């Protein structure tokens, strides 16, 4: 029988296998011998295997004078109705003469909830996922982590009819994380994170694409240096993150943010280079600089900001004397700036030469506009004048003709 939905059968097989693994793991290895687990809010029954005459069994709770309220002994077993976390403890059953028959440690908790899962790829060859439990179960918990490649080539389908599946490898030194190695940048994957405890299991399926979860590590080796004889410039350089493979087909672009130490807002510039010259720094004032990275084709997300680097532009007495008034006024406004949130818009502190060039360009543009308007006006005036003359000529001709007709001929005079 074929599934009406393509691929549904393979998904169900995969889920069944994962849940079967979880169910097999439940009864074994959850603690020391003699431990029983109960679900909060349900009735819990404790058996007394060593009892021969169930009617003569006595139950006691360690550290308590009496059993929990509502408990009852039925055929030698202790029944604890609607057990709570407070019901947990060590219970023992005894014979009529007080001899110990059996002891059990009861631990109470909850069923697993659906875990919260997020994934990230710091390069295009591997991706890692992390998770947290959505429910505090108060019980020992394990996780089964697997993945399946969704988009398969024809050759892969022939080799494995159920698709490419494998474990998402967990690192004991980093609990709550797993990694898939050898992933493909243009492929899609389905991740299965199953949370298992002695009471049961719960899972989350997460579909991911490498392009959506790519997030490089922050750039490394950030260096900021003053430029000699340039009191308003700083040279910033950095390196690719060591985790990003150095391949020509997968480049990064960068985002640089910087500010004077007394200012709370950032100036931001973007570049594809591994260095950048800040041209609007304040002479003699320390600046703080950070850089982040993103895939060159804008896939995924920006990296976290790198560690800070600081530097102070050189102080040139001649230049500082010329710009002293403007700089002091700007610094006062910066110091009074109340905002503490980073400002993505660059601070507008253009060089005087750039302002002069802009003014000259605007003047030239205005001159050409005025010249064009003058030429158009002259052409319209000439055309109107010519048209006026053309209308006057026929009128003069008719007047002359009428004049000639009115004059008497020589024969009429004679």
Q: What does this 3D model show about the protein?
A:
The protein is of the alpha+beta class. Helices cover 26% and strands 32% of the residues. It contains six helices and 22 strands. Strands 1-7-6-3 form a four-stranded mixed beta sheet, with no helix packed on it.
List the helices and strands and how they pair.
Layout (H helix, E strand, L loop, with lengths): L7 H18 L9 E5 L4 E3 L11 E4 L10 E3 L2 E4 L8 E6 L5 E10 L6 E5 L5 E7 L9 E8 L4 H6 L5 E3 L1 E2 L6 E5 L6 E10 L2 E10 H4 L6 E8 L2 E10 L12 E9 L6 E5 L3 E4 L8 E9 L13 E3 L5 H19 L16 H55 L3 H4 L1
Parallel strand pairs: 1-7
Antiparallel strand pairs: 2-5, 3-6, 4-5, 6-7, 8-9, 9-13, 10-11, 10-14, 12-13, 14-15, 16-17, 17-20, 18-19, 18-21, 21-22
Shape category: elongated
What kind of oligomer do you see? Answer: single chain
Write the element-wise H/E pattern from the N-terminal end onward. HEEEEEEEEEEHEEEEEHEEEEEEEHHH
Strand content: 25-35%
Q: TL;DR of this structure?
A:
With 414 residues, this protein is α+β, with helices and mostly antiparallel strands.
Keywords:
4-stranded antiparallel β-sheet; 26% helix; elongated; disordered C terminus; 6 helices; 4-stranded mixed β-sheet; alpha+beta; 414 residues; disordered N terminus; single chain
């Amino acid at each position: 029988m074929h599934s009406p939905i393509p691929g549904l059968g393979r998904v169900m097989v995969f889920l069944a296998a994962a849940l079967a693994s979880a169910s097999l793991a439940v009864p074994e290895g959850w603690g020391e011998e003699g431990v029983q687990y109960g679900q909060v809010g349900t009735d819990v029954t404790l058996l007394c295997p060593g009892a021969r005459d169930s009617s003569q069994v006595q139950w006691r709770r360690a550290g308590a004078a009496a059993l929990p309220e509502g408990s009852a002994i039925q055929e030698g077993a202790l029944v604890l109705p609607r057990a709570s976390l407070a019901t947990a403890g060590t219970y023992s059953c005894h014979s009529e003469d007080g001899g110990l028959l059996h002891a059990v440690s009861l631990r109470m908790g909850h069923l697993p909830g659906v875990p919260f899962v997020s994934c990230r790829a710091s390069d295009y060859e591997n991706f890692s996922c992390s998770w947290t439990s959505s429910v505090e179960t108060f019980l020992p918990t394990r996780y089964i982590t697997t993945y399946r490649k969704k988009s398969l080539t024809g050759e892969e389908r022939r080799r494995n009819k159920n698709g490419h599946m494998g474990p998402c490898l967990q690192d004991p030194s980093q609990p709550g994380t797993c990694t898939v190695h050898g992933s493909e940048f243009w492929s899609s994957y389905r991740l299965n994170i199953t949370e298992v405890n002695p009471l049961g299991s719960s899972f989350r399926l997460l579909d991911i694409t490498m392009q959506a979860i790519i997030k490089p590590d922050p750039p490394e080796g950030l260096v900021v240096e003053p430029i000699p004889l340039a009191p308003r410039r700083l040279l910033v350089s950095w390196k690719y993150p060591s985790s990003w493979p150095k391949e020509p087909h997968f480049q990064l672009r960068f985002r640089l943010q910087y500010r004077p130490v007394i200012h709370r807002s950032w100036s931001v510039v973007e570049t594809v280079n591994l260095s950048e010259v800040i041209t609007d720094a304040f002479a003699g004032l320390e600046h703080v600089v950070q850089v982040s990275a993103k895939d060159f084709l804008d896939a995924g997300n920006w990296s976290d900001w790198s560690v800070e680097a600081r530097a102070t532009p050189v102080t040139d007495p001649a230049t500082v004397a010329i710009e002293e008034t403007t700089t002091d006024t700007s610094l006062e406004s910066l110091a009074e700036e109340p905002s503490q949130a980073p400002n993505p818009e660059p601070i507008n502190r253009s060089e005087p030469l750039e302002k002069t060039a802009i003014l000259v360009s605007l003047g030239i543009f205005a001159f050409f506009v005025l010249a064009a308007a003058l030429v158009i006006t002259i052409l319209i005036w000439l055309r109107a004048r010519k048209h006026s003359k053309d209308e006057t000529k026929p009128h003069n001709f008719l007047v002359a003709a009428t004049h000639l007709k009115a004059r008497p001929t020589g024969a009429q005079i004679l």
